[in-house]
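R.M. (postdoc): so does anyone remember the format we settled on? I'll just put the structure tokens first.
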């Protein structure tokens, strides 16, 4: 049996598969958000910054992709001692891009290694700059200048590894929990002390006001009673003079008037029925009228 046709077909199929593999291993694509580094036998030989279909040597060249966009870096929380010896917890946020891919690969190779090294640069710069400033500087307009100084310093130190640092910001700068609690307790005790002092002062003022009011009340009542007695005495004296003058002008009328006052006082306070003799002197003015006995 002749197997030559089958051998030829198998050879053609194998050649086609090998050719297809050679073609697939010789091409690669670069996305718009990527840049590629071609490494030949462990040595970088070229950087591709333009997107599209590219060619490389199969089995010899290796393509490593890197992002061209801004990369974020959130450093772990770090405790820093400020210039006034206060301790704070600081979180920083950094954004950077790979500016020189070849230098980046030779220096740190991977983004993970770059993040670790850049985090150290940011941490050391933050500790150095904040260690010179008091806490009040971070709560004032001076904070922006401090952050800009940190960013410029980190950007300068990151250039030798092919990184362009675009932004470094202090995401959070808070006192540690135990320090915050101690400050809160101290503020609370201070406010309680001030409240006690104000209450004591207010009670003292209230006692003084009440004492002054009582004294003024006593003085006012004393003056009023004295004036009322003087006025009453003057009124009684004036009434006596008036009665004496009236009696001197018309003794009969004055006597009649006094009888009417006596009737008013006596009858008003007596029982509904009053039994008297018709010849009683008490009733003469009531029976005969004024001027007659």
């Amino acid at each position: 049996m002749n197997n030559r046709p089958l051998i030829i077909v198998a050879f053609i199929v194998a050649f086609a598969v090998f050719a297809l593999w050679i073609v697939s291993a010789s091409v690669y694509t670069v996305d718009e958000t990527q840049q590629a580094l071609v490494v030949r036998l462990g040595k970088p030989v070229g950087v591709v910054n333009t997107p599209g279909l590219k060619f490389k040597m199969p089995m010899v060249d290796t393509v490593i992709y890197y992002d061209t966009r801004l990369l974020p870096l959130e450093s772990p929380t770090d405790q820093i001692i400020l210039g006034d010896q206060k301790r704070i917890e600081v979180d920083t946020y950094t954004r950077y891009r790979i500016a020189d891919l070849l230098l980046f690969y030779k220096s740190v190779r991977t983004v993970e290694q770059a993040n670790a090294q850049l985090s150290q640069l940011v941490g050391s710069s933050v500790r150095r700059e904040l260690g010179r400033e008091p806490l009040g500087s971070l709560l004032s307009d001076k904070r922006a200048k401090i952050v800009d100084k940190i960013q410029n310093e980190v950007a300068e130190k990151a250039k030798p590894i092919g990184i362009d640092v675009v932004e470094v910001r202090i995401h959070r700068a808070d006192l540690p929990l135990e320090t915050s609690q101690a400050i809160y307790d101290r503020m609370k005790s201070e406010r309680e002390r001030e409240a006690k002092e104000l209450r004591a002062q207010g009670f003292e003022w209230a006692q003084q006001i009440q004492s002054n009011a009582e004294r003024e009340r006593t003085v006012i009542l004393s003056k009023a009673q004295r004036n009322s007695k003087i006025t009453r005495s003057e009124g009684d004296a004036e009434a006596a003079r008036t009665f004496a003058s009236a009696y001197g002008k018309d003794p009969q009328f004055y006597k009649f008037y006094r009888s009417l006052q006596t009737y008013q006082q006596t009858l008003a306070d007596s029982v509904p029925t009053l039994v008297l003799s018709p010849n009683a002197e008490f009733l003469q003015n009531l029976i005969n009228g004024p001027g007659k006995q």
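R.M.: ...and that's the designed sequence above, right after the tokens. Also worth knowing: Helices lie at 4-26, 101-107, 111-130, 135-138, 142-158, 177-249, 251-269, 284-288. The chain has eight helices and nine strands.
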